[in-house]
Amino acid sequence: DPRIVIVGGGLAAVRTAQSVRDLGHRGEVRILSAETEPPYDRPPLSKEYLLDALPDDAIRLLGPSDYRALGIELELGRPVIALDTVAHTVAVAGGPVVPYDRLVIATGAQARPLDAVTGRTAAFALRTAADARRLAAVLRDGRRIAVIGGGFIGLEVAATARARGCAVTVIEAQPAPLLGAVGPLVADWLQARHRAHGVEFRCGVTVAAAGAAPDGGERLRLSDGSVLDADAVVVGVGVVRDVGWLAEAGLEVADGLVCDLAGRTDAPDVFGAGDVVCHRTEHGLVPVGHWTAAGNSARRAAHTLLGLPAPNLLDDGFFWSDQLGLRLQFAGRADAGSEFVVVAGDMAADSFVGHFLAEGRVSGVFAVNNPRQFLRSRKELRAAQESTTVREVLR
Ligand code: FAD
């Protein structure tokens, strides 16, 4: 059986390892992770883990005995720095090269840095469990928290910080948070919900610079000339895919590692899984970026590397978000110009399901606190997708 080496230490790495075992692979499986703590789930980092400081065991993807039982060698603190596709080896910082027969690249992404606040002592990113622990320590009653970026993670952090008694301001470059992702109607509804919970918004502005505030903390200078003082600044402006270490490897790299839908790169025996991947599709490059898609891409890569046909998993752009006690669920896409039509429940009652309709066709589904109807609508969406494009991976 081929020796399988997986580079990365998140969901995609673990799901790939589990899947090859599920598929009956008996040879070596090694995970080389840059992190020093065992793989954990990231969604709780902006939610329960940040709110309640859950025990670390609660976010682990597998327990220590699971790795042993599955025969997965988990090697922590092993950042891979280079790949030689001809010699079939990867180089690990400070260690000997590691040979592979099949290699899976699952290095995920990092929080995108924001130049204006880089290096400021009270600036926080949120990608790792260590980031979450550092941030949780400052989310105390009465603290002033500025969240830069009104995306899903920024809004989850804003809601969590309010729940911990902080005074929260979200700074968003667009006229409303999440406008591109969910369209104006839903974006306005969500912003109103946050306002009702005491979150303040500064929309249509960016952060131009940061310096020390007179009474401690940071003073942010905004693009409209105003200033905002905060005890802590959380940056949630998207991610950068971790492909820097592949610079010399000769693989096609765009906004991420370019793979086909089955997980193949353009080098033999090298595969990609999870957030690091950009899928090459007939509609152009489509990045992976959510939990379900990351797990699905790992399962497909596991099949492919073992020479099995990749399963046609449902990749419909599904993701969820929990904020303000609301469960948001989304699938498909909210195309610019599409109309949002509520098909069940009531937006004013914070429980509803709506369809994004473009040219009479459902392109996306958004639900709040209504998982049953969401499932039904998601099936409808799938039917609409299958009638047009089969095996399309949505953005
Ligand atoms: P990652 O989780 O980024 O893991 C990559 C791993 O590879 C890391 O451990 C990293 O240290 C390691 N690594 C990187 N470079 C190297 C190297 N050179 N050598 C060795 N190891 C390396 N999605 C949803 O659908 N719903 C949500 O509610 C949701 N909430 C989220 C909240 C937060 C705070 C975050 C950060 C993400 C959230 N996501 C959510 C997204 C979801 O967590 C990701 O899609 C998922 O983590 C992707 O897994 P991955 O394994 O591909 O990448």
Structure explained in plain terms:
Helices cover 25% and strands 30% of the residues. The chain has helices at residues 11-22, 48-52, 64-70, 129-138, 152-163, 179-196, 291-305, 371-388, and strands at 4-7, 29-32, 72-75, 80-84, 89-92, 98-99, 102-105, 109-111, 123-124, 144-148, 167-172, 200-203, 207-212, 218-222, 227-230, 232-235, 239-241, 257-259, 270-272, 277-281, 284-287, 319-323, 326-332, 339-346, 351-358, 361-368. The protein has 395 residues and is α/β, with parallel strands linked by helices. The protein is built from eight helices and 26 strands. The model is unreliable at 389-395 (pLDDT under 50). A hairpin with a 4-residue loop joins strand 4 (80-84) and strand 5 (89-92). The chain folds into three domains: 4-110 and 239-305, FAD/NAD(P)-binding domain (3-Layer(bba) Sandwich), CATH 3.50.50; 115-235, FAD/NAD(P)-binding domain; 325-388, 2-Layer Sandwich (Enolase-like, domain 1), CATH 3.30.390. Bound molecules: flavin-adenine dinucleotide (FAD).
